[in-house]
Each structure stands twice: as C-alpha cells, then as structure tokens.
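Handout, section B. The chain below has 189 residues.
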Amino acid sequence: MDHYIPKRRVPVTLWSNDRERAEGHVFLDLDPSGNSHQTVLAKLNEASRFLPVAVGPQGLIQLYNKSRLVRVTTGPDVLQSDVFNRGFLPWREEEAEVWLSDETSVSGRVWMPLERPTQRISDFMNQRGWEFFVLLTGRDVQLVSSAAVARMALSESAEAPLDLPDSRIAGLKWPDPSMFAMGLMEGRA
C-alpha cells in the first residue's frame, strides 16, 4: 500500500561509523500553509531511529540507522535555509576542530543557539545527547552527530595560565625539609 505525503527531496551525502559514504536524497516535510518548512537538521534530530534515503538512479528507498551516522552534508546547490534555520533567537559561532568516531577530523565553526548569554560550547555539547549539530566549514555545512564526537579542540581558553602555580599556593613559604629531619618543625601546625 502506498502512502503519499507531500515532500521535497534534498541531495545529501552520509558518512557512517565504518567510513562508508552514501549519496542520496532525504525527504523533507512540506508545510501546507507555506509559513515554514522542515530542515535537514530538524529531520536528523527527529525522534525516529531510521532516516529514509532515496538512493541510486531509480530512487530506491534505504533506511539508515541514525545512530550509525557520523555526519551529513548536502549538495552544493542546496540553500542554507534548507539545511538549518538560524531563526530569530540569539546564537554564536565558536571555532573548533572535531575528531570523530570514524577517525576523521573536521575543522570549522560550531553554530549554537544560545539559551543564555554565558553559555559555553561545552554546555551546548553536553545538552545535545544523540542530536546532530551544525559545523560551518568554509562554504560547506556539516551536520555532525554529537554521539560520534570523540574529541573537540576549542579556540576558547581557561582565561588563566594553567602552567603557573595557583597564586595562593605560590605565596606560601614552604619550610626547608631538612628542618623536619632535625626536629625543628615538630608540633607546629
């Protein structure tokens, strides 16, 4: 039995944990009112486990388990508004290099909507769970699975040098260890 629901096709490339690359089309929901439309990021972050993808010249449907996907990119002619929607809420971009579970790395700017002005990228990543997030790499938009991130190098710093001893500890005058051996420091707290 065929079930027809109005959709539009968007060309994508999928990379999986085992370094397999697949090209096809994902189906995005059309908004009958014309006010808004679904994005590829929203489609990836739906609660459903499998992503239907039309593959090959006949457009045969294959279901990809989203938990096995590492990242997704769209075709060169796809509008950024079809990939993700910046919306009207505050957002920020942070430089990062991301190492993935398939032993590849991608550098770019992590786009993150801000839930509060002091939000750090570590806060954003810890809130993602299994969701995909946006990594802007020059002209490309990479949709990266949070679950596939093995490590992330950030441009932000701790705002304090980590190689210097804490100023409170450095200010203390430590006794000479030989004083203990001679019994001169016994009983002192």
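Note. The chain has one domain: 7-73+85-154. Compare this with the example in section A.
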